Amino acid sequence: MHKYGYLLIFILGLVACGGTETEEKQDEPALAKAHDQVLYASDMDGIGAGLSSEDSLYQVKMYIEKWIQDKLLLEVAESNVSNLGKIDRLVAEYRASLILNQYEQALVQERLDSSVTPQQLADYYTKNKEQYQFGLSWVRCHFVKVYRKMDGVKDLRKWFKSDDGLDFDRVKLYCSENKTVHILDEDTWIRFDKLLNQIPKSAIERRHLEGRSVLDKTDDNHQYLLRIFEYRDKNEATPLQEVKEEVRRIILHQRRSQILQDVRREIYQKGKTDDSFEIY
């Protein structure tokens, strides 16, 4: 284990055993004592839970023995470690960090507006497009790949090329009832390389990318139909739809940071007004 791992365990041990027992605990049955430290029944909550009676008793016994060993070892360690002052400072800093963290979480939970509108997503994306240039091409399209000897393929070709909404409904119904590979949501961006894996090499031409023509191609096994609505070259930013969850997380993180900055500033200004601190 890394040296800081041992240090953290040591600090947690000091936090766990520090201080005197409460009056409430002193009224409980004592299970063990080592020097001035007492192990009470409530300290054993959860130990052995869910086990058989025999296994539970064994777990309790092992816990008590380890607790005694830890307390005896700590007594020896405290007599032989020379930098207890530094350790006490680390414990105090760790405690302060835990308290601050809990308070900050409560503040964020109370004040954070977790709703992010489509316009807010779009605004952040537009201002930071350069962050989303990943060297990939993207496309919005309708695409169908079907066995060329399937019944109704001739009608499918006609429906696919039509601009009539009723014909498009026929295309969707055909694809749902037959064994096809298809993309029929024109608002969904897909990676262009994944589309190319489904189409014969070099089948897509510039006129198809520009949306000026519907690809209608057949090979020995399949019929391919493709209508491209928008194509983004690899040098352009990844579409917002593909990164909107990341953008949303960034916006919420910025809001969280702003809340904590504002609180620190408010408390600092109040302390300054109240003469709660001095700088020498």
Structure in words:
The structure is a single chain. By secondary structure, this protein is of the alpha+beta class. Among the domains are: 3-80, no CATH class; 134-232. The protein has ten helices and seven strands. It has helices spanning 3-17, 23-26, 53-80, 84-111, 118-127, 153-161, 165-177, 192-196, 206-209, 240-273, and strands at 30-34, 37-40, 138-147, 180-183, 189-191, 215-218, 222-232. The strands form two sheets. Strands 3, 4, 5, 6 and 7 form a five-stranded antiparallel sheet that branches. It has a two-stranded antiparallel sheet with strand order 1-2. A hairpin with a 2-residue loop joins strand 1 (30-34) and strand 2. The chain is elongated, with a radius of gyration of 34 Å. It starts with a helix and ends in a 7-residue tail after the last helix. 9% of the residues are buried.
What's the end-to-end separation, in Å? Answer: 42 Å
What's the overall geometry? elongated
Number of strands: 7
Estimated helix fraction: 40-55%
| Structure classification | alpha+beta
Helix tally equals: 10
Defining key terms:
5-stranded antiparallel sheet, 54% helix, disordered N terminus, 15% strand, alpha+beta, 280 residues, two-stranded antiparallel sheet, elongated
List the helices and strands and how they pair.
Layout: H1 3-17, H2 23-26, E1 30-34, E2 37-40, H3 53-80, H4 84-111, H5 118-127, E3 138-147, H6 153-161, H7 165-177, E4 180-183, E5 189-191, H8 192-196, H9 206-209, E6 215-218, E7 222-232, H10 240-273
Antiparallel strand pairs: 1-2, 3-4, 3-5, 3-7, 6-7
Helix pairs in contact: 1-4, 5-10, 6-7
